[in-house]
Amino acid sequence: MASGTGVPSLGPKGFLTVFTPQMEDVIARMQDEKNGIPIRTVKSFLSKIPSVFSGSDIVQWMIKNLNIEDQVEALHLGTLMAAHGYFFPISDHVLTLKDDGTFYRFQTPYFWPSNCWEPENTDYAVYLCKRTMQNKARLELADYEAESLARLQRAFARKWEFIFMQAEAQAKVDKKRDKIERKILDSQERAFWDVHRPVPGCVNTTEVDIKKSSRMKNPHKTRKSVYGPQNDVRTHSPTHTPAPEIFTKYYFPLLFQITYWGGQLDRHRLKMSKVAESLLAYTEQYVEYDPFITPTDPSNPWISDDTTVWELEARCVFLDCLFGFPLYTVVSDCVCLSPVRSQVSRG
């Protein structure tokens, strides 16, 4: 993980499933009113920055409460937790921890990795489109976000009107909120997308190697909309949108697989020894009539220099013995039928 290769292989369930409860337990302890990190509102020029704490506060708290003696180790652990989006810098898209006075804010539990987020590109398009509608310096799109918006607009050209309507409806809902609440929610939403659509060059903690993904077949990580049902423009805040049920999504595919494998179990199958025995018996029975194995008399002019068979025009010399086999064998052989056709035409 520290090498920046994405999610490590730490068991069949993956990194998030194994270590998410431990990380969230640490975050819950950090937010404890008595023994947690002090959260305060900081005055900055003519405005206030609500619900923040510094990076040095996190490092000192870890050293004190997690039995960590090395400051570098505490900084590394904090960076890993920030990369998963549990807390984030309020003025930077790069999710990393700095041991200085940089201000950080806790993420709302709705956006925690334990909710198994795998958001759609349409959700990201709604988010970026909504940002362009809000004329505020802190909400201006970065260069990579503007490029992503242009790319998504081309990809979803046919449904862009619907995406724009959804973003417009969300922007109207956001305007009705309290100023401080809106500022906090905007930063939390931005941090969520910094985790799932990170800055180019940064580690994407949500990526899983495709081979591991196909091997795990984890049904718990689902594609669910961040902003609720896609066919309803009257969306609510991400912090109040209920998670959709996954039962109906997996019921029919699983039912199909159960039916298919049940049918496969009921199929009649022969043992390999029986199949080989039948094949040998068939070969021994027909080997006499295979000209590639048993030489014919006269010889086949196509594989030898002997043209006797053509000179004698005796095409049916070697066919009399074939009539000892079932009728379908004779009928299926065009060579056997040629004398019959000759007799019919003469008659």
Automatic annotation (TrEMBL):
<dbReference type="GO" id="GO:0005096">
    <property type="term" value="F:GTPase activator activity"/>
</dbReference>
<feature type="compositionally biased region" description="Basic residues">
    <location>
        <begin position="213"/>
        <end position="224"/>
    </location>
</feature>
<dbReference type="InterPro" id="IPR015898">
    <property type="entry name" value="G-protein_gamma-like_dom"/>
</dbReference>
<dbReference type="Pfam" id="PF00631">
    <property type="entry name" value="G-gamma"/>
</dbReference>
<dbReference type="GO" id="GO:0005886">
    <property type="term" value="C:plasma membrane"/>
</dbReference>
<dbReference type="Pfam" id="PF18148">
    <property type="entry name" value="RGS_DHEX"/>
</dbReference>
<dbReference type="GO" id="GO:0035556">
    <property type="term" value="P:intracellular signal transduction"/>
</dbReference>
<dbReference type="GO" id="GO:0007186">
    <property type="term" value="P:G protein-coupled receptor signaling pathway"/>
</dbReference>
<dbReference type="GO" id="GO:0009968">
    <property type="term" value="P:negative regulation of signal transduction"/>
</dbReference>
<dbReference type="InterPro" id="IPR036388">
    <property type="entry name" value="WH-like_DNA-bd_sf"/>
</dbReference>
<protein>
    <submittedName>
        <fullName>Regulator of G protein signaling 7</fullName>
    </submittedName>
</protein>
<feature type="domain" description="DEP">
    <location>
        <begin position="33"/>
        <end position="108"/>
    </location>
</feature>
<dbReference type="InterPro" id="IPR047017">
    <property type="entry name" value="RGS6/7/9/11_DHEX_sf"/>
</dbReference>
<dbReference type="InterPro" id="IPR040759">
    <property type="entry name" value="RGS_DHEX"/>
</dbReference>
<feature type="region of interest" description="Disordered">
    <location>
        <begin position="210"/>
        <end position="240"/>
    </location>
</feature>
<dbReference type="InterPro" id="IPR047016">
    <property type="entry name" value="RGS6/7/9/11"/>
</dbReference>
<dbReference type="GO" id="GO:0008277">
    <property type="term" value="P:regulation of G protein-coupled receptor signaling pathway"/>
</dbReference>
<dbReference type="GO" id="GO:0043005">
    <property type="term" value="C:neuron projection"/>
</dbReference>
<dbReference type="InterPro" id="IPR000591">
    <property type="entry name" value="DEP_dom"/>
</dbReference>
<dbReference type="GO" id="GO:0005737">
    <property type="term" value="C:cytoplasm"/>
</dbReference>
<dbReference type="InterPro" id="IPR036390">
    <property type="entry name" value="WH_DNA-bd_sf"/>
</dbReference>
<keyword id="KW-0734">Signal transduction inhibitor</keyword>
<dbReference type="InterPro" id="IPR036284">
    <property type="entry name" value="GGL_sf"/>
</dbReference>
<dbReference type="Pfam" id="PF00610">
    <property type="entry name" value="DEP"/>
</dbReference>
